[in-house]
Design a protein that fits this description.
5-stranded mixed sheet, alpha/beta, disordered N terminus
Length: about 280
């Protein structure tokens, strides 16, 4: 009798968990658990698209207002892009070589500085352990993603690495550091140092791929012109500002329109799109 009661209790427990006498298949469990992961990936991908479009739209605003050399290179840093439960904070900046009369005021460097200033905390008690303070401020960009209209140069790549920015997405390859035909890097870019790593990748925006293809056509058309520089080893590179200056309005203007007509697919990103539009301003 005791054995019978135990068997009945076991059967009742199975029914209460599964809703039937049949066990849940392992495949079903896998598909259910993978759906949230797929949603998170889709939300992050959508954020990457919107942040890149905002970076390019910012560049469009600048080129419409101040058509000076280098103004068309812009960058954006966003915190916690992969935390889909919250709307990321962000800052934007641009290249300022022309107005600062120097070659080190690149968009990525200026954006890094703006991001660091945003997170500075001068309310720390004087008695705090210096090591604790260092560990606090040195990791303030460790959860960020940087978006830039142009692939970082070696100087910017190293600075991003030292600043602990783990993820970088660029809109167009820098033709000044790549072969115009093979697209291979002529100058290696640092990806890890001082026990730090950075992952750099080309944007997945369809517009980014279209620009890459157009850049190749541009190189072929200007093969014998001043926009192409031939190196001693036979490799050819495009003078990057020549290409950008010739195409800035078309490229960045298209991105501007795409941002302001963007259709958000995930509720988690609706507020972000509103913030980006407000930061850019619908002027055109």
């Amino acid at each position: 009798m005791l054995v019978l009661c135990i068997r009945v209790l076991i059967l009742l427990s199975i029914i209460s968990v599964n809703g039937s006498l049949y066990p849940v298949e392992s495949d079903s469990q896998t598909s259910i658990s993978s759906e949230p992961e797929q949603d998170v990936t889709a939300i992050i991908t959508e954020r990457d698209e919107m942040f890149m479009l905002a970076t390019l739209a910012y560049a469009f605003n600048i080129v419409k207002s101040y058509p000076k050399p280098g103004y068309t290179i812009a960058a954006l840093i966003a915190w916690d892009v992969e935390d889909v439960a919250h709307t990321p904070e962000f800052v934007m900046e641009r290249n300022r070589n022309f107005e600062m009369q120097g070659e080190i005021f690149h968009a990525e460097i200026n954006t890094l500085r703006k991001a660091i200033l945003k997170k500075q905390d001068f309310s720390v008690a004087p008695s705090v352990n210096p090591k604790d303070l260092y560990l606090d401020y040195t990791y303030r960009l460790a959860n960020t993603t940087l978006y830039t209209s142009l692939e970082p140069c070696p100087m910017c790549a190293m600075t991003l690495l030292v600043a602990r920015v783990p993820r970088v997405i660029y809109f167009m390859e820098d033709p000044g550091i790549r072969d115009s035909k093979t697209h291979e890097l002529i100058i290696p870019l640092p990806t890890q140092a001082y026990r730090r790593k950075v992952s750099t990748s080309l944007s997945k925006l369809p517009l980014a791929r279209a620009v890459q293809d157009d850049m190749s056509s541009y190189a072929a058309q200007h093969h014998d012109g001043p926009s192409i520089k031939r190196l001693s080893n036979g490799q050819e590179i495009i003078r990057v500002l020549d290409y950008i200056d010739d195409h800035a309005t078309d490229i960045f203007g298209t991105a501007y329109k795409q941002l302001f007509t963007y259709s958000v697919q995930h509720q988690e990103n609706r507020q972000l799109l509103d913030h980006l539009k407000k930061a850019i301003g619908n002027k055109y």
